[in-house]
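Notes to self after the call with IL:
- keep both proteins in one doc
- input above output, always
- annotate only the second one for now

Protein 1:
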Amino acid sequence: MRELVGVLLLPFLFLSCSDDGGPSPDMAMPDQAIPDSGADLVAPDMGTPPGPLTVTVLKADGIWTNDFTTQPADGVTVAADLPDGAREEQTTGADGKVTFKDVEWARGTAGITAYAKGYRLTSVIGLTSADGDQTLYLAPLRPGVETITISGTAKNPDPGGDYLVVCATGTLEAFQGANTLTYTIPVPKDQATTLLGIQAKNLKPTDLRLFPLAAVAWTKLDVPASSTDTTVDLDFANKETPVPFSTTFELPTAPDSLVGTASRPEVYVNSWNGLLLGIPKQSTKLSTTKFTVDAEYVKLAPEADVLTRYFVFVGANGHGSFIIEQGYPKDGATVKDFLEVPKLVYPASTTATAPYYDRIEIENPDPTAEPVVVIVDDSNVGQMLWMMRGAKGMTSLTFPPLPSTASAADVFGTGKLYAQPGMVADWDTTRLMYKRFANGPWFPVDPTPPTASCVDKTYDGHAYKFCDELPWAGGVTVCKSHGMRLARVDDDKENEWIKTTALDVLAEAAGYGLWLGGNDQQTEGTWVWPDGAVFYQDGAAKLFKKWNVGEPNDSGNNEDCLMMYLSSDDLGYWNDDDCSKLKYVVCEKY
């Protein structure tokens, strides 16, 4: 029952917002979109004059101690990836503010990233002038806590129960076991804790869309602080009296909706300090998209410290859609308007490890919701390390380069990392918590940043860098870290100069390829430069092109990035190729 553990992880997402205190304005996907970096696509502000972008950074401290406060963050690095391809960094002052002047909004979109050691990295991409000044909230990483182990036995069990759950304050871990009365759980050392035991019965439903467990008994035990492992028994003779309630779930009715047709509705009540206070008791299917869930909770925490989560479970590892409300549930409530679960388009595999800086493409089923991608340390009970939010309507997102003050070791640590795309809408300003969100599938990521030695060159007033071999996405990231983009080629003279220079300055370039900035990742057959200019579409040239004979051919349905041949037979001609291959890289400032 890994999904039951998942609900204990309190997957609230700290976000950034426009200065009106709410999510950014709606932004529909245009027919001719402009990428921010690589394949991050939203509409440009054509004709908009340059203007400032002010970013306020607030630290949201106290979230792990129920002492929640926000205050201006002094000394935080804010990196801005600007529409002209430049990267600029500033440090916040005592007011938590930085201002990037003369942002050329007509040239595309901007992205911002805030970093302070000990806090979750936060990024927003796809910004336009319509989004206005931005506020970024930095959530502290969950502190490392030295733990002891509490072990024991469940005494006087209810004869109807065959499943044991034990949770505790101060930890996000829980014990779960079938046909057992013994438990082990880690808790903070030298801190008093409360244990909550739940006995449940395995219902073994024939319909997989019905919840398989039913709570039958609850007990609570206050345990004094200890510096060593200890043994205590939970006595179910000391019962907590639960409060029953019933909820009706109305799910999406579209025939291709995973939430509506391939999900299991569940409801949980959690305290902020880790206790699972309520779980389902029985669920009933009224129709394909309508269910009632009878549940119960024990009232062991103040209303302000409680969350009720209506969860539509779709797959493993927390894959599903949530509606979250502050406080205990209300009997007879109806919940609806669940966000659809995003489908992962790229990476194509959820088991193969992908570089964290590679593009993440989703099917965005709700253009009014904002896409997010989080990187999580799975070895640390789901510690969220980096959250990136995109503009409404975006389907392709790419994590920006790390700020110069952030090392990969500081940000990522040494644990096993996963990325997960999601959709978010509506939020509660009292806890900066999303009230509706949906999570797509997890996939493992490699936290190693791309690095390359580069040689500086200049042509026709433009700065270039010729760099060592990288995958195409690595080239995007390295170029962006230098305030540049993968090169755009506008005529045969420039193409010839790039070819000749690459052979001259890259020691082993002959016989190898060179990544350029063109790609058709967003729409097959529509080739764009990093600034959004379409140069080749559906077999017709829109701007300069230098394709080799028979190219582009999308061999294997997996060739979406533009390279230049540096071999003798095809020297200087272009080819579409697999973006994951290693090739030399040319960056340009334009």
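Protein 2 (the one to annotate):
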Amino acid sequence: MDAKLLDSLKERSAKEAERKAIIEEGHLPALAELLVTEDEDNALVLPALEVLFYLSTEGALRPKIASVDGLLQNVQKFISRGRLKQKKVALMTYKNLQVPSCFLLPPLILSPP
């Protein structure tokens, strides 16, 4: 996967309406493959993690994302030894993928005191 396609996926994944289409187009294995690298300085790692984060915010898509071979293990790898921003995005993505969607509650909206 090249940087141009990855940038396009990042923009599209930020839009809730596009997330299901990205998965249906078969981009998950390529995104998972980008995380196999041992090079933390690889410029494609952070955008790939960001795309996965956006996709993981969609509860119905989580089982399909989590079922991609090696994806969770590679996301977890960046939690422990990635750069700071990689760690943050990887941690949020991993947490999203660990919570069964049936247990998710709607966001709590607090009004200011």
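Annotation: The mean pLDDT is 87. The radius of gyration is 14 Å.
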